[in-house]
Request: fold
Amino acid sequence: MSPVPTQHVETVDFVMLYIVGISVILLLGITAVMIYFVFKYNRKKGHQPVDIHGNIWLEIIWIVVPTLLVLSMFYFGYTGFRDYRDIPDNAYVIQATARMWAWEFAYENGKKLDTLYVPQGIPIKLEMKSADVTHSLYIPAFRIKEDVMFGKTTYLGFTAEQVGSYDIACAEYCGLNHSMMYTKVKVLPEVQFNEWLSKKDEPVYPTEMEK
Ligand SMILES: [Cu+2]
Reply:
């Protein structure tokens, strides 16, 4: 079993490290060369500047190398994004509703509450709507985030690999109490999840989103 909360952690963190790593290497390399040139070509040493015209190999290198680097960043970003959007057809669907300033999660049996409960190891599809302004459902530990909009259904897919409790935040400024629009996602083993789902004694929050 995977030691990370979702598979997105590996792909997202890899792309992040890859891009930051290349950027840091280039930053250090360019800075070192600049400092070296400041001393090497110091005017006091009597160097005369010379124009160089038409070096085809230099031009090929400085076009091809950066292009390949940027394309490789795109490639890893794109394949990660494709995994992230590729939600299996048999995913377990949970309806999520955002409103100023709370979340509500509704299950197929009519159960509704402000905390997201999910079974471990089963692909989940969150179908998300907003009752008012634009919000964004963000689960940092799962490396997933998607805007939640009025009049449009957006979705997020993930498979929670590790039992536990993780933060859910709103990541789109949505008014006065935006910074307090937090809740939790609780990952339960499948058997416990099914027990929880069939219990009726959980608090139920009314919603005005139902059409
Ligand atoms: Cu919000």
Notes: Residues 98, 101, 135, 170, 172, 174, 178, 181 surround copper (II) ion (CB under 6 Å). The first strand starts at residue 92 and ends at 99. The chain has two domains: 8-85, 92-198.
